[in-house]
Amino acid sequence: MPPVAARYFELCKPKVVSLIVFTAVVGMFLATPGWPPLSALIAGTVGIALASSSAAAINHLLDQRIDAVMARTRNRPLPSGSLNVHQVLTFALVLCGASMLILVVFVNMLTAALTFFSLIGYAVIYTVWLKRATPQNIVIGGAAGAAPPVLGWTAVTGSVDAGALLLFLIIYVWTPPHFWALAIHRRKDYAAVGIPMLPVTYGVAFTRWHIFFYTVLLVIVTTLPYLTGMSGLLYLAGASVLNVGFLWYAIRMVTQKSTPVADRLPMQTFGYSVIYLMVLFVFLLADHYLQNFV
What average pLDDT does range 37-43 have in this prediction? Predict the structure, then answer.
């Protein structure tokens, strides 16, 4: 990939967008007992991916000042000078426009509207206001990040149903322990730029306990697909194993004192949380078709 193209690709935050698109696609498959319409599947996936990439590029644009200070982000395209503001803004607007066009023409207005509001929720409301306003920024702003399976669902059905809201709830509750683990690891960076992340304002120990409490809540929420009849025993078994793993990390976070080994736990927990969500949605998908075709 040419260097300039690689920098534009970096604007899209491909790892984050991949997870977003994956949960949206699973939402499409869970929305119907059979296979989703091919047109909705392809156009919905492309449209949601473009919107997510646009939101990521806008995030780069709005956070360029703090990105230049934080060690994790100072080599991003804008702080490094490899792209300028005009290029990034144009790129973000083109992606947004293409996304809305595809979703309106080839999917439905509801999906287009919800996708647009999610884009604004993350790229503007969270990045510009919530991120800098409150230590609960990720809890409130997590609603935008939890939207993808709902967008996938509406792309197929044209409506927001109980199943879509349950998928939303799972990601919404998963987001705080996932992100706070990273925030503990990067707390010095956040403190340096005045971002009031929970470990900066209330300390690491307080944040670790919040990770534990939200993990317990996540265990409860992830049993709801089985309890409501949305999923069966395959999902329940898989979710239970995954939850034991997450709880194990959360318990270690609150019980182990600071040592070189314990200090690696936040990033280990963060890494596990990403695998957790992906595999959980795989179990949802596998169980869905097991129930419908066996």
Answer: 95
Q: Note the pTM of the prediction, 2 decimals.
A: 0.94
Q: What is the DSSP annotation of the chain?
A: --HHHHHHHHHT-HHHHHHHHHHHHHHHHHTSSSPPPHHHHHHHHHHHHHHHHHHHHHHHHHTHHHHTTSTTTTTSHHHHTSS-HHHHHHHHHHHHHHHHHHHHHHT-HHHHHHHHHHHHIIIIIIIIIIHHH-TTHHHHHHHHHT-HHHHHHHHHHSS--HHHHHHHHHHHHHHHHHHHHHHHHTHHHHHHTT---HHHHT-HHHHHHHHHHHHHHHHHHTTHHHHTTSS-HHHHHHHHHHHHHHHHHHHHHHHSPS-TTGGGHHHHHHHHHHHHHHHHHHHHHHHHHHHHH-
- pLDDT, position 134: 84
